[in-house]
């Protein structure tokens, strides 16, 4: 029992000394505290500005459709051509395709994030509108920051806290991620999605 009390006292003393040193450091170097605080504020301001720019862009393009309206989807199982397991796999493959990273030529040669349209095309070539309803259910909603899933680290947590990353359904992801210039793929996806009763 005495050993436990001694250990606790040591921990408390160590914490107290550390806090005293940190406080003294801040008092001696108030400018460094201002730099740190200013840096945090700058990051928050940058995220807010990026969100505002994205929201403004979505308003102009018409992509700001409220995604919080619940959509009741009831697939007609007599007309589906895939199993629920296949639909789950396709939904997972789509999310991976939306988060694709690699070398791109447009708008300039660079390594970055994009969408693997080949995967999207291969899936939509195999399904009909009733299949899409099952995929929609399996996809559910996934966090989306305007160009991909947020990182699974503190950066993703910050995006979530600031409202930059929001849960979006499969229709929203498809509308946001498909390349504007891939007319044939967009046409195919639009036919299937609208055939399932969604607005695309």
Written account of the structure:
This protein is mostly helical and about 200 residues long. The chain is built from 8 helices and 4 strands; from the N terminus they run αααββααβαβαα. The chain has helices at about 1-30, 30-60, 85-100, 115-125, 130-140, 155-160, 170-175, 185-195, and strands at about 100-105, 110-115, 140-145, 165-170. Strand 1 and strand 2 form a beta hairpin. It starts with a helix and ends in a 5-residue tail after the last helix.
Q: Which terms would index this structure?
A:
200 residues; mainly alpha; two-stranded antiparallel sheet; elongated; disordered N terminus
Characterize this entry briefly:
The chain contains 8 helices and 4 strands; from the N terminus they run H-H-H-E-E-H-H-E-H-E-H-H. The chain has 200 residues and is mainly alpha-helical.
Oligomer: single chain
Cα-atom Rg, whole angstroms? Answer: 24 Å
Q: Label the overall shape.
A: elongated
Q: Helix share of residues?
A: 55-70%
Largest sheet: 2 strands, antiparallel
Separation of the first and last Cα atoms: 68 Å
Number of strands: 4
Estimated share of beta-strand residues: 5-15%
- The helix tally amounts to 8
Whole-number mean pLDDT: 77
Spans of at least 5 consecutive residues whose pLDDT stays below 50 are 1-5
Helix and strand pattern = HHHEEHHEHEHH
Tell me the structural class.
Answer: mainly alpha
- Order of adjacent strands in the largest pleated sheet: 1-2
